[in-house]
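Hey, weird one. I pasted the Putative ABC transport system ATP-binding protein sequence into the form twice and got a warning about non-standard characters only the second time. First submission, copied straight from the form history:
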Amino acid sequence: MKGQPSTPDAPVLTATDLRRTVRLPGGGTLAVLQGVDLEVRAGESVAIVGRSGSGKTTLLAQLGLLSPVSGGRLEILGIDVSSISDRRRARMRNRSIGYVFQSYSLVRHLSALKNVELALLYGARTGRRERRRRSRAALAAVGLTDRARSRPKHLSGGEQQRVAIARALVREPALILADEPTGALDVDTAASVLDVLLKATRERGCALVVVTHDEAVAAQMSRRVVMHEGTIRTTPALDGVDA
Ligand SMILES: Nc1ncnc2c1ncn2[C@@H]1O[C@H](COP(=O)(O)OP(=O)(O)OP(=O)(O)O)[C@@H](O)[C@H]1O
């Protein structure tokens, strides 16, 4: 499988003393991530919980190579991505990471199928027919074969999120990152979307990291970590204090 670690339990991501500092409009700086240590292995699902403003989204964006690393070390599939070129970083992101957003982020004027195909357009060197075949398979995996031709506005929130999950999975990434993937959905729809995400990651043997405020979502993951003021709390006794 493409972009996958060679052994089932191999670390997919290893963050060591990861830091992110941003410039504030007034001229000062803010240390948003203040030394995060986190390891996630193939087949694991990890929930990141914590108070609003503790740095969860910033950490996920960092793990997804959407923003540069200010300090510390980040390895994805054993490659130190803290200091690689922008080009390699983009290639790594496309090849090995699938990202799911709370707001789905689908292209409005494209069908569900075309939205999924988009993920295979950049750097995948996949022919048109193969793109279509894989995209149909990804939509089938999330139970949306019948809605392949529908545009996002004709799909429910849960269906749109399943299209977004298909788009994240179609390149068979080693790592799936999801930021509040069920935050905009009602309880039942959220449960079915989460099922789809967990089943797909289980079957493909990839690693899953989910940022969530929802303890019911966190409870379904194999592990739960708590963010507090830009770091991860590892003391079990403190778990739950800030979640
Ligand atoms: N580019 C930026 N410029 C200024 N401040 C930022 C920037 N990025 C993040 N922050 C600040 O860093 C802190 C952490 O933000 P982040 O969005 O990661 O928190 P969060 O835990 O995901 O919050 P929530 O649960 O509310 O989504 C916040 O105080 C936020 O305002």
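That's the output from the first submission. The warning seems to come from a hidden character in my clipboard, not from the data itself. The pocket of adenosine-5'-triphosphate is lined by residues 22, 24, 30, 32, 50, 52-58 (CB under 6 Å).
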